[in-house]
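Encode chain A's predicted structure.
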Amino acid sequence: MKKVARRFDPQVDDKNWSILFSTHFQQLQSLNAISTLWINGFSKLGIDNSKRPLAEELTLAIQKYTPYTFIQTDENIILEQIDWYTMITNYQMPLTSFVRTPEELDYCDEPDIWHDVMGHVPFLAEQDYSDMYRLLAKTYVAAYRTERQDLLKQLDFIGGMIIELGLISEPGGIKAFGSTFYSSGEVKQAFKKENQIPFTLDALDSGESYDRHSFQGKYYVFDSLEQLVEVIKRIAARL
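Encoded structure for chain A:
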C-alpha cells in the first residue's frame, strides 16, 4: 500500500530520533519489557542514539553476526507479504524513508525507519532469531507458490500476532518480543495483564491478523523462541 511519501529531513530527523529513543527506551525500561534477544542484538550494532543510523552503517555492523544487507528506499511503502518475505530469504531488508515525530510515538499511520531499525534490526543481529525468521520467510514463500491458503493464514497469524505483537516468557518475566513494541506506545497496552493471553496452537486458525491502524488490545504470550521454531516447522512439514 503506497502512501503520500514523506522524506528524510536532516535538519529535524536526528533531533526527533534522539527524543524518540530517550523517551521510548525509558518507557520500555519502566515496564521491564526489554527482551534479552533484543538488547543483545542492539548492543552489537553500535547505534549512536543521537542520530538516525544509515543503511550502510547498519549493514556493516550486522554482517559481523548475520549476513543481512539493509536497503534504503526513497518511498514510503508497505510491501506485499510475499515481497517482504522473499527479501528476507535473501537476507535483505528495506528501510523506509522518514523518521516519525515525537508526537507520533504512540501511533504512526505510515511505515517509518524508526520502526524498521528499533523493531526489526536488533532481533536480526541474533543468529537464533535470524534463523527462525528466515525459516518463517521460506515457509511463507513455499506456501504462497503452492497456493496453500490454509497455511498462509497460519503464517500470517505468526507474522502479525507474534513477530509484530507477541510476548515471550523469559527467566526475568514476560518481555516484549513483537517488533511493534520497540517503536510504539502499544507496549503499554501489551503489559496490562488483562490483555495477555497464553499462546496455543488453536490460535493459528483464529483468523486474527495485524491491524496497522489501531491497537490490537490482546497479546499472545509464548514460551520460547524454540517453541516458535517448532510451530513454524510443523507448518512447513505440511507443504
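The chain has a mean pLDDT of 93.
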